[in-house]
Amino acid sequence: MRGREWSRPVRPARREVLSAVPQLEEGRPPLLFVPGFGHGAWAFAEHWLGHAASRGFPAYAVSLRGHGGSEPAPEATLRAYAHDVVQVAAGLPRQAVLVGHGAGALVVAHALARYPARGAVLVAPVFGGWGVLGAALRRNPAGTLPAVFGGPLRLSRGQLFSRELPDEEARRYVGRLGRAGRRAQWALLGEPEAEPAVGAPPVLVLGSPDDRVVPASTLTRVARRYGSAPLLFPGMGHDVMLDARWAEPIDAILDWLEKEPAGH
Amino acid sequence: MSTSTDHGRPDPEATSSGLGSDDRPVSDRGDTVCVIGAGASGLTAIKNLREHGFGVDCYERETGVGGAWNWRHDRSPVYASTHLISSKPFTQFPDFPMPDSWPDYPHHSQLLSYFERYADHFDLRSHIWFGTEVIRVEPAEGERWDVTTRSTGGYGPERTSRYAAVVIANGHNWSPKLPRYEGLEQFRGEIMHASSYKDPAQLRGKRVLVVGAGNTGCDIAVEAAQQASRCWHSTRRGYWYAPKYVLGRPADQVNDSLLALRVPLRLRQWLYHWTLRLTVGDLTRFGLPKPDHRVYETHPIANSQLVYYVGHGGIGPVPDVARFHPYAVELADGREIDPEVVVFATGYLPRFEFLDASVFGDSAGAGRPGLWLNAFTPGHPTLAVAGLVQPDSGLFTLSHWQTVLFARLLQARRDRPERAAAFGQRVRERAGERYSGPVKESSRHWFEVGHADYLRAVERALVELEGK
């Protein structure tokens, strides 16, 4: 029974969805990219959407409510974000692969309990918990502390990108960051674990051992939950889709999809 | 995900042949499951069985998906203005939500597009044989089933395939239930069952009598109030007419807030009566009979407009029909009225003409199978019925969980036979269980279920089966 889903459905919100589809339909499953807190669909539109489309995968990215070009939603909850993802996924022509980045991976984990995805990829997943908060406080106290009290979470250039990324580009990206709803931010501290995924989709976890938001131990822990080991890309920051060597992780994801039964 | 067949269509080249009970050739479909019907329940059965790794052949007598909700089908009961009476969250499949941009109570054409999208999204069409009807389902050795099909038009040869399991999802809203009245044959006016009502133009400018106070009867009475020159609405007893909106929200959502809090039935009834007194008021003032039962004791009627049109004189409430005369209808209170058109919105009866009634434990053939959870039949662990419920909410969520449970049961038969045997034991012990509280006895209410009670029962069955 999911009484709350019935008696208190999530309020609809206007959502931004960016896409890049291949010129020739090759029967590959569509990919739906879900950005982390503060990021919008633009983060994937920079490089990954076009790259996935060039390899034959229809690619879409959604801005969670309150992010990017979607409707403002300061009181949004994690449940509302998951609703946004499921709505967009169910609106795609075929069963989709969900790709979540950062806290977007946690949103995807919740969405997987409500939508039988073809597969899922969790990129540098932020699943919350006190350990992650501790690490963030040590590395960036000024940006993290206000979030604990309902203020904005500000991630620094050093946390997000490697030194290889030109400074000007990095500054431009950091300038585009927004913020998540405070209730959703708090959910990172005490939210109960996501229900098991429906339809037992294959799940790939990947990230960087040099990520300064998600410790490598977290990557291993999340991957173990889904019965695998994380795929690692040393030398990259948290925002692997924007960092200098952005092509490596997306190619690895697409290779994995081509090999998995989900890719066909 | 491994599947026993990549393509759902029975391929004579790929299947071994044997002989059936009367020496017919039978193509053996191995572990494949047969689904009868590609309406809402059939579609979710295909999807969930595929998701659990089973090959599926679905037979659909029509040429498209959607069953009752596809108005092009000759068995579809929907009419031009049919809207849902349960709001979106109650109606949609739990893992495939309707779009946010749709209204609270979508139109039937939206529902059809929803099923078409569901079929395309999960690639279900390649597992469906359209234009093929099932004419016989017979038990075969090893708890398997011989399913005989032929093309809907009746041409072409019959063919029999042997399946590991069968899901019956042939719907229960297509075989009209017509009441018997004295003198009905002599009546000179037009008589139709609600199933053949398609468009308000059929009523325009005429004197119309609508019989029956189900949701369909009330909807047609409201349409007649706007189109016909006169409308009478005959009901056997008084009913509670619930508005579709309460406190600015769909009424079923408000009601479920109380269910979620597990508010006891008596208190919910009291709150409901109190809300209706505030919103709809005293029905007897409008000339409607006083309900002889409390709310939740008959199938709920969600109609905001009926009382409104009664108040405007558009609908004249009348009692039960006593008998028909050639040019008049005599009512139970002795009055006579002279309708030109009589619409019987008297419901439908479930029918399973392809199956020997004794398989269902219904040896009397009354169309009332003895099932557990309205889905599982004693002694036949590989047979399930999907969607044979009349819920106080939408049906599709219930069909979804029924078919998930059946798919898990089939898995358990393979991987954990002791669990599957225990499940079979429960089916035998608990067949005929009801999930609806105290409801009035009538052919329409025997498969009535309260959605919350029913889903909790399915959830318990799932947990018991998985042993968590």
From TrEMBL, chain B:
* Name used for this protein in its record: Monooxygenase
Spell out the molecular function terms from Gene Ontology. Answer: flavin adenine dinucleotide binding; N,N-dimethylaniline monooxygenase activity; NADP binding
Top-level taxonomic group = Bacteria
Q: Where is this region: Disordered?
A: 1-27
Matching SUPFAM superfamilies: FAD/NAD(P)-binding domain
Skewed-composition ranges (Basic and acidic residues): 1-12
Organism equals Micromonospora parathelypteridis
- Annotated keywords: FAD, Flavoprotein, NADP, Oxidoreductase
Q: Which family does it belong to?
A: Belongs to the FAD-binding monooxygenase family. Belongs to the FMO family.
